[in-house]
Amino acid sequence: MSNLSVDHLLGIKYLIKSDIDLIFKTADNFKKIINQPIKKVPSLRDVTIANLFFENSTRTKLSFELAEKRLSADVINFASASSSVTKGETLLDTVNNILAMKVDIVVIRHPNPGASVFLSRNIDAKIVNAGDGTHEHPTQALLDAYSIREKYGEVVGKKIVIVGDILHSRVALSNIYCLQKLGAEVKVCGPSSLMPKHLHALGVTHFSDLKEALVWCDVANVLRIQLERQDVNYFPSLREYAMVYGVNKEMLDSLEKEITIMHPGPINRGVELSSDVADSKHAIILDQVENGVAIRMAVLYLLAGKIKN
Amino acid sequence: MIEQRQLLNQKDIQITIERLCQQLIENHGDFKNTVIVGVQPRGTFLSNRIIGKLKQLLNTTDVESGSLDISFYRDDLRRRDEPIVPEVMDMNLSLEGKDVVLIDDVLFTGRSIRSAIDALMAFGRPKSVELLTLIDRRFSRDLPIQPNYVGRTIDAIDSERVIVEWKEVNGKDRILMVKSD
User: Are B75 and A45 in contact (CB under 8 A)?
Assistant: First the structure.
C-alpha cells in the first residue's frame, strides 16, 4: 500500500482494492483535519485545479471545491451553461484552452459516458471523473463505501441493496464495483424496466420486491429517479413508483433488525424516500456529505503526489 | 558495504531521557500550562517515554499530550516518488495560550520541524513552542531551526544515517549510525 496504481480517477473499475484502502486511510486523516479549528492544510498550494462541469451539480461541485480549497489548491470553475461550449466549441478545445493556463488537475462532469476517459488519453493533466453520463461516479461510490465502513467498521461481508433507477445511474455502477472490490455482497432492487440488460455480468441479482430486499440487507442505498435521463416512460407514474418502491417508516419499523439508509442526493422526498425516513436515525445521508469532502481531499492529494515537477 | 556503529545503548538512552525530563521540569514546573506533542511517527515513541517518566518524577497522572501528523504540511509532496502516507493524528486539545514542547527523535535538515510548527498552529495560538530532540545532527540544517533540549549532538555526513530503534518496535532501545557507500 504505497501509491495509487492509476494516474487518474476515471472510474472504480480501474482501481484495485489497495487503491481504495489507501484512499480510505488518507481520508481518515482528512476527516480529522476538517474537524480541527483550522480546517485547511497547505499540501496542494502549488497545484491548480479546474472544475469543469458540463452538467448541473450542486453537492458534488461544492464538495470538490471545498476539498480543493481545504488543500490550499488554486481553483478555477467552469460551468458549460455560461461558456463558449454553447458557441460550438468541442470538449477537447475547451479543455486544451483551460490547460494552456497551466492546470494540473481537471475535475470533470459530463453528460456523455466516457468523457473523462477520452480526456485522460488526450491531455496532459490528472483527470478526476465527477460523473460521466450513465457511466461512473467514482468519488460518490468511494464516499458511500467509506460511510458504510465508518458505520460498521468494515465493508467486507456486508449486504447492500441499491434501490431505484439502476439503468440510468452512474452511482449504482460505481457502487457495485466499489463494494464488490471491498468484499461486500451487492444486490439491486427496482422495477425491471429500470434494470440494465446485462446486470448478471456484474455478478448482481435483482429483487423486484422492496420488502424482500430490505429484509435481506444491512444497508439500503436509495437512488433518485433520474427523470432527466429518461427518454421514454419506464413506469406509469411517480406516485405509483413511490407506492411500490418508496422506502417509508412503517416498512423500516416492521423489519426485525435495524438497517442503514443511504442516499446520494438530491432526495425527492415522498418519492424514493419518505420524509420521516430521510430525517430518521436510520439515515446517514448527512454523514455521506461530510465524508464526501474528506474522500475528495484524499483523492486529490494522492493524485497530486503523482504530478512531477 | 554497510558499516554500522552504535551511538547509544539502552542504558545511555534511559539516562538521557531522565536528564531531558529534569531539564523540562526545570523550565515547566508542574506542567499545568504545558502540552507535550510528539511528531508522528517516530517522535511519538520518544514523547511517550518522556511523558511516562515525567508522570513518575512529578508523581502525577496529568500531563497533557498529543501526537501530531505532519504529512499534509510537508514541502516535498511532488518531489518524491512515493506518496507521503499520513499517520494517525491524535490532537484532541487546544494549544491556545499553552507552552508546547515539540518532540522528535532526530533533528536533521529541520524541514519536518518547520512542517510540524505549521501543523501546530491549526490547533490554536500557543504561548510558546520549544523543541526537544534525542539526536541533533548539527551542521546539516537547511532551515534556521535549533533545538531547546538535546539528548546527544552528533556530527555526521550526508551519506550517513542515524537510526533510532525502540523496544516497542525493534525489541531493544539503541541508536545506530549507518554508513553505506
Answer: no
**Taking phi first (over 0 means left), then psi (-120 to 50 degrees means alpha), and beta for anything else, what does residue A183 get?**
left
Give chain A's domains with CATH numbers. Answer: 12-136+289-304 (3.40.50.1370), 138-285 (3.40.50.1370)
Nearest CA in chain A to B93: A36
Q: Is the Cβ of A35 closer than 8 Å to some Cβ of chain B?
A: no
User: To 10 degrees, the CA torsion angle through A114, A118, A124, A127?
Assistant: 0
Torsion of CA A288, A291, A295, A296, to 10 degrees: 80
Q: How far is B130 from chain A (nearest CA, A)?
A: 21
Residues from chain A that touch B97, judged by Cβ atoms under 8 A, are none
Q: Which amino acid is at A160?
A: I
Tally A–B CB contacts below 8 A. Answer: 67
pLDDT band at B101 (very low <50, low <70, confident <90, very high): very high
Against a cut of 0.95, is the pTM above it?
A: no
In the structure grid, which three cell numbers stand for residue B137, read together?
A: 545532527
In this prediction, residue A82 carries a pLDDT of: 63
Look at A43 and B72 and tell me if their CB atoms are within 8 Å: yes
| Chain B residues with CB-CB distance to A29 below 8 A | 69, 71-72, 86-89
CA distance B94 to chain A (A): 9
Nearest-neighbour CA in chain A from B163: distance (Å): 22
C-alpha cell at A277: 425516513
Nearest CA-CA partner of B47 in B177, B166, B162, B144: B166
**Cβ <8 Å between A25 and B121:** no
| Percentage of chain B exceeding pLDDT 70 | 99
* CATH classification code of B9-72+87-157: 3.40.50.2020
Best probe of the A interface among B69, B73, B78, by most A CBs < 10 A, is B78
Four-CA torsion B25, B29, B34, B37, nearest 10 degrees: 10
The alpha-carbon gap from A94 to the nearest alpha carbon of chain B, in Å, equals: 27
CB A137 within 8 A of CB A171: yes
Distance CA A67, CA A73 (A): 9
